[in-house]
């Protein structure tokens, strides 16, 4: 069930049902940022959306929230089209999403993340949310989990097999392949050099552009193909369902 | 050109071109909130997205940002599936979007809005952004505009003709028709009474639910149909293009 | 009863009484900003104060708070004497006023506003305040209303009759007339051209000064006179009392 | 010159003149809070306003801003009619006032304060404003001063002579006398006991009400009279002018 | 008992005991900032730490928190090694310390302060914390006190006797003597002129450095010696214990 | 050179020198939180302080800031003595430390961290700081690095050799050993069971206490000894010096 394509009575009925996933929700979360000479700017929010929607299409008992499409991408701001929230803004926004979902009775809020640069801020937000309860000596009525889609069981192994060299860390062939599978009419090609991009630390936007002139880090995205992307999606979607079931099975503590 | 389905070099080239719309960008913005017994929770962000994407499909010279899909919907929080930002959070997030887009050289940032409840906060955000420049005695490098899609020239007139009674203010047949045109497989029906919902002031979430038990305000959404939605889209999309051209033609002041 | 010229036991007794307006309070709110070549910088906070105090003078059962005299005037900052809060600051301050008044048992908080530029931020603040309750699934113990003084029943009609041309939107003859009636010793004259000022969009302070070099928008303030101002006050004050009664008669919802 | 009763060209001309006080401004600042059984809720903002306006009336070369009428009065919130800002809100608001005034070229911003409870927050705000410059290794274009009206040279001595016993710290006969001189029609009487109120620490609102049931601290306000108030004003107003001249004579440092 | 050198079961047992100081805690708080040509940058946090630890060493019934070592020192930022929080940051941090300690049942939280520049912000923080309770019409479960170490009974008298001239206000011989007693191997000497530093107002960092080129205000720190420092500590430590007992003996109000 | 035990002229001279580490600074950062039945509450800030001070003692060319002793420990708040900042507060405070140090010309700011729970928030803070520069299209004048002390080259290997079983994740024998080496008089013993504590996810404070009743996660801290701690320190201190040299050798990018 995609929340945004459902009516409120449908969500209400779902929440009141006794399905194991009734009060669990998947929030695809990513970033809109440069992905090298050929990658789509939306790659990092499209990938978790594609996987979550594929999972939902195969099993309607999943509830999927709209996609949180802008994340923490300050280091990519020297490349046109990148949109970033400051970490403090990102924290406030995630926190309001969580409060909204918890307000309705969602007890297991699962963020399926598509951008490594989001991880620290999402985790800090979880702590900010927990802290409200911890200072108040009270029990929260929900719990939260962060999962990067490439950390779903089996996915990284598959990516390594598909792209034994030149996978890299940004504008990777695996994430680009996932978007190619979903948007085959948007496959782009470009010449780039070196074949495998350099690696290095991530700092501010101008420093990033100095180090990684075409935006890639350690990757050779031309290895991507729609077929490989489909293979990844086909592995990731059921892995997500299984992972969500495990999470939703954890009871909330009570006094 | 949809930013999220483009690469950064494509956006970069667009920004450096001399097309009249080269440095203008449309940001669809809305809300994910209950829309009565039959409306989609995503209605308010889907409508501007549908219209903006239709405009872009007919004229690639438009640049369209990803959709800002969560807005100010605190009053709908007593209905399942609603997700809301607090106004202060919403302001911070919009401000970061604007800063990001301006950073790349977008000079005319046009928000196509789908939710009346967003208007005050978006306008307050514009003032917050302008204030940074005004206190500093400096000239901003961009300008911003807010347009509700129903205020595009001709649209309200058409809606009044299509739905002479029972249009109302929330869960209106016009907005629901727009989503039906785009998602015909998601058309929902439900019995509701009274045929035309009551009207009244908007306050907090529990008060809202007391006043408007099924979520509608003044509307009779069963009048919606995919065909009527298509008619609205077909009028709104070219009106958007024209409106954007007028906005983009305003020069930025310089000393 | 003017709060600031009363003692706390007087306000306490009022709150505990059973008068229909016992737990209602009027807060005059405006802005301190340029009002063209002849208007007082205080015009926008003086007008609601003048009207509210006139109403209170005729009917002591009104409770009037001190005047909130600085609002959102960032666009006027290029003119000497303007003082502005940022929207975010304005929201925090209004919110604390509301919390203070509600703390004492005021249940109907009525803002009589004198500055169009305040409207978006005041409405966003109301949403921020409601959101606290909406996220908490709780009922607020008060309700709030915003009314511009020129929207009091009959007032705009009268202004249009008094000033059929050249009323405009800023430094209008009607608002200047109201201040002239109250401060006849401060009536100022100045040559200005054109007779009716231009109109246009409102953005940052330097842009504003470019578009509206003497500060006026669309107005010809020389048409103002103390007598006309008195006429407006005499209409607005009883309209305020009546409007407040209607608002105060709305019961707070309870479970 | 009272800013709110002047036009912007008048303030503009003043700022460009070469009078020693041309770029100095007095901001009366206080609080709206209970002042015992007989004191006006507005006492703490009325006193600095009365004194500043008296000084301005005797010497038009003073520029006086509108009165900042709501301050930090959280400890008085258990008494009806008190309105308080949180310290963090108060800081943001004062900071915006300072930024606005500095924007126009005011170089010496002088806060004439009427509420002891404001002092810490005003001083913290000054530090917050200075910090912006200090972190940036830059020179501010203005300087700020805080002066409580009772600390104007000679005033405390006079108050001690007028009220050798029972002056106290809150709802003092001296401040009440000042308001009586300005608002003789608002003189209130009430029985209270003990004749001289107790003293003690200031904490939260409920604790305050426990310790000081009628709101007074250490004072016997019945000793106030309009004549004594006039005596205080007549001393304080010229002391303010002199103090402001001394402050305005300090040059701003330059590199 | 030093919290940071104790285990949680030890603190837990202490809190549950019936000792008069069981639920009282001393928080040494200061600043890391320049202290003239010879003073240690840590002087202002070392002094309260030294005194509190000396007191605890003589009487284990004192509970001493870790030292809050960075305060409000924006005016010293033009001197290398100074670290400052903005007042708004400082307030947030102190507030979280207080919330943490109160969470465990500490009812009397006593800040032993070593930096005059902290006072306004600490007091504003107390008001911010109280305001939470005051707006909510609730009773806090703790109370707070601020004491500068030089205001402990007898200490200023001793300092005046030890340093009848040239004590001054910053980089004073008394505070430097206290650090010399504790860190005799870190005694520094330097030539400076004039022998007694100038005095004046405190504003931003560049202004401060203009006025006080070597950092001192009004002081002649070469008069310090480890022996004099020991004398001060030996007086201050028992004074702290006595003062804390008096504070801890105040019962928390209850309804 | 320990900043807090130095004078400002000493730090100033260091900054102006041409030593490879002249403009590098180590900031020990940790947390004050429960460390199981025997660990010191200060363990997480004491460990990086002990290691950094040991390094400085062996090589005075290191500049070490005061210790940032309170971090993000919301999950430990159900255990007495824990003090935590909220992530948002922590971010503001770290940011002010960085701004202060950068203000003086420190170009390489190295955080030696002692608490895993701090990592996300520190990294989010770095992004917040970088974002200021990235949005402004400007180059920062410093760079930052985070290193957990156990990630210094060789340290984890040694810890695994010393404690092949029962090392765990919280209240580990290695961190407790480090504090025992530095504070041998504070070695504590206690009976606990099971010998090796359980593991699990970290959420809010009450949940944490349910899962980990005595505070430990996966550890058997009784294996700690002062001698083992000394071994760890003796490895970590030179590793820190080497790591800092490598970091300080990275030039800041320039246009």
UniProtKB/TrEMBL annotation, chains A, B, C, D, E, F:
The keyword Hydrolase applies. Its cofactor is Zn(2+). The keyword Iron-sulfur does not apply. Keywords: Hydrolase, Metal-binding, Zinc. PANTHER family: 2-AMINO-5-FORMYLAMINO-6-RIBOSYLAMINOPYRIMIDIN-4(3H)-ONE 5'-MONOPHOSPHATE DEFORMYLASE (PTHR35005:SF1), 3-DEHYDRO-SCYLLO-INOSOSE HYDROLASE (PTHR35005). Belongs to the creatininase superfamily. This is Creatininase family protein.
């Amino acid at each position: 069930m995609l929340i945004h394509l459902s009516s409120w009575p449908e969500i209400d009925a779902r929440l009141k049902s006794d399905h194991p996933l009734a009060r669990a929700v998947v929030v695809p979360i990513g970033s809109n940022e440069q992905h090298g000479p050929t990658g789509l700017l939306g790659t990092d929010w499209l990938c978790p959306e594609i996987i979550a929607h594929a999972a939902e299409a195969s099993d309607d008992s999943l509830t999927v929230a709209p996609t949180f499409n802008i994340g923490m991408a300050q280091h990519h701001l020297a490349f046109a089209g990148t949109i970033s929230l400051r970490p403090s803004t990102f924290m406030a926004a995630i926190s309001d999403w969580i409060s909204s979902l918890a307000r309705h009775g969602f007890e297991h809020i699962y963020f399926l993340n598509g951008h490594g640069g989001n991880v620290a801020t999402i985790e800090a937000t979880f702590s900010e949310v927990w802290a409200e309860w911890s200072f108040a000596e009270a029990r929260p009525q929900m719990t939260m989990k962060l999962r990067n889609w490439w950390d779903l069981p089996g996915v990284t192994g598959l990516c390594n097999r598909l792209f034994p060299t030149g996978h890299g860390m940004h504008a990777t062939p695996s994430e680009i392949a996932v978007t190619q599978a979903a948007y085959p009419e948007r496959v782009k090609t470009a010449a780039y050099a070196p074949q495998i991009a350099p690696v290095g630390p991530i700092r501010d936007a101008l420093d990033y552009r100095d180090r990684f002139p075409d935006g890639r880090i350690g990757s050779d995205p031309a290895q991507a193909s729609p077929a490989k992307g489909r293979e990844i999606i086909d592995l990731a979607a059921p892995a997500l369902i299984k992972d969500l079931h495990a999470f939703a099975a954890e009871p909330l503590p009570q006094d």
